[in-house]
Amino acid sequence: MEEKYFEISAEDLKKFVDSMIKDNFEIIAPMDRDGDTFYGKIGKFDDANLDILLPKMSYKEYLLPKTETLFEYSFSGVDIDIKDGIESVEGKNRKRVIFGGRPCDAAAGPIMEKVFNWGYKDDFFNERFKNLTIVSIACEKPDDYCFCAEMQLSPESSHGSDLLLKKTGDKYSAVVVNDKGLELIASYLNLFKEIAKDEFPPDKDWKKIFEIEKAKSFLDKNFKHNYFQDRFLSCIGCGICTYTCPTCHCFDIQDEGDMKKGKRIRNWDSCQFAIFTLHTSGHNPRNTQGDRYRQRLMHKFKIYSEKFDKYLCVGCGRCSRNCPQDINIKEVVKDLTELASA
Amino acid sequence: MANIDEKLQKIARDLLESKEVSLIIGYTGGSHPQRMRPVFITKPEDVGRLSFNRHSVQDLAVFLKKQEVKKFGRIGIVVKGCDEKALNVLMQEYQVSRENIKIIGVECNGVIRQDLADKGETDLSENTVYDKCLMCGEHTPILHDYLIECADPQISMSGDIKPFAKIEELDSMSSEEKDVFWEKEFDKCIKCYACRQACPLCYCSRCIVEKNVPQWIDTNFGKIGNAQWNLIRAYHLAGRCIGCGECERACPVNIPLMLINGKMARSIHDLFGYKSGLDVDAKPVFGVFSESDFNDFIK
Questions:
Q1: What is the ipTM score, two decimals?
Q2: What are B132-159's pLDDT values in tens digits?
Q3: Which chain B residue shows the shortest CA-CA distance from A317?
Q4: Cβ count near B15 (within 10 Å)
């Protein structure tokens, strides 16, 4: 469908969210907790913190939960009963809305969708993604860790959002990107005022400090470059970068249980762990943290883009903000672009 | 501040030029003026990058467990008093040999909490430092080959702030209340194991959580799996944790891990009169047998 444009006052936006909650929508929004902000289920509009730039973690867990059951079994001694995990995927009967996320987080969904439908179609991911409606709010002030503009997005990008809001004074301008967005506001249209396309505030010109293609051209040719071993001596392999990342999606399949009952689950995993690639023989093809951080860079800025025509990074900067050793991926990628020209 | 940096750089240059060490692990400026980050210096001409200030929060002893770092052989390391206690435990446990390490001690009167520093905090006060700093008994590193005096004044204490007050609050709770408290905290755990990776004393080449024949610790993120992980880590650090707080600082979901570690340290002190990391010649508390042990089972 063609994009539609609306306006909504700050007061009506609150009514919009509170009405959705009343109508049994599950609303996930940035919420304050323990001195930080995390995405969580809000009980009312005022529970949300919409002033924060970015919650500490992304909302990836609503697409790929930290743990999910693929199937469960029980054995009575005679019969085996198997229950498919897809039956209990949440969000089937109740619509879930991510409200007040940022354009970078929204852009992550369609990027991950590629790999979860690469040959094998992952019903678990797809079922959740289908039932998720994304209402994002454009960023007014990205911080020094942000580099979405470099990642072919922008602080105002509507890519991946179903509805994008832009704050202008005490009201919001809204662009409805697709049918899902239109469907969401259909019951609350009295709160929105339709406007013409040219009344919608135009995107600013966001400056870039590097060209991501250059980083790829370095990665294409320099798998064995010393940079990786030297630069990532300070990496302790904690994996926080991957766990807080909106696009990192590696998982580990485990069986838990005994002869009588049990389940097969999949848990988040991380390429930054030494055990991730450890062979039974004891050989580890990614034996150093330099090898492992290089893998993360290769996957994000080379391999994924070659396979799926999208970089596996939205430039949110969480991996840098949360790194206990202050490894800053924006600096790293900039280094790669400079090495490419050197 | 410049004075400290100059002294650090001179020591590092001398050590590298005389080939007494092949690597210096220290701090350098980070992503913004209130952040420092580890730096690895191998050439005398690079020592100008070394710096130290009230934002030098990391415990650099963590790097001594990395294979990539170990291969440098003799290493110079910049440590605060708290970080140096980790070196003592590593030496007690035969992980690091005193001869292979040059300790560049920096006197420290506290480091500013990183969450506050990230919001621009630069003042050093009882409201801005970690709880460990308020209780610090080792402003001067116990062992050191070099010592650099502190640039910051001692923090004045009003008496209004009681470090780790929550531990006493928890002590007064019933088991059921404690269970509720910790279940809520552990529920946040995302099993990234960053607490383990950030810990200078979690050096097992294969952590129990990675052993799957049999699977000792549930891998799921449920109530049981999360509690198992966090409790087993606490037990493995009982009598060993020196309270650097790196696990809590690293935790991306803000679990108050220092409450557990602090409680363990208090219990070990009450039961055995032992404080971890203070005496490099002491036997580790769980590595000794005493005939006078008050427990019957051991006789």
A1: 0.93
A2: 999 999 999 999 999 999 888 899 888 8
A3: B31
A4: 24
- Domains in chain B: boundaries: 2-148, 165-287
Query: CB contact, 8 Å: A56 with chain B?
Result: yes
Task: Please say whether the beta carbons of B14 and B35 come within 8 A.
Answer: no
For A198, the token pair is 């040219």
- Separation CA A166–CA A102 (nearest Å): 11
Among B257, B185, B194, CA closest to A33: B185
Q: What's CA B160's distance to the chain center, in Å?
A: 26
pTM, 2 dp: 0.94
Could you tell me whether strands A163-168 and A132-137 are parallel, antiparallel, or unpaired per DSSP bridges?
parallel
- Sort B195 into a burial class: Cβ within 10 Å, 0-12 / 13-18 / 19+: buried
Q: Rounded to the nearest 5 degrees, what angle is found at the Cα of A53, between the Cα atoms of B56 and A199?
A: 150
- Measured at the CA of A169, the angle between CA A166 and CA A175, to 5 degrees, comes to 20
- Chain A residues near residue B250 by CB distance under 8 angstroms: 238, 240, 324
Position A93 scores a pLDDT of: 64
CA distance to partner chain B, nearest, from residue A242 (Å)? 9
DSSP state of A48: B
The C-alpha atoms of residue B217 and residue B232 are separated, in whole angstroms, by 9
CA distance B297 to chain A (A): 34
Is B120 touching A (CB cutoff 8 A)?
no
> Is the Cβ of B127 closer than 8 Å to some Cβ of chain A?
no
**Domains in chain A: boundaries:** 4-341
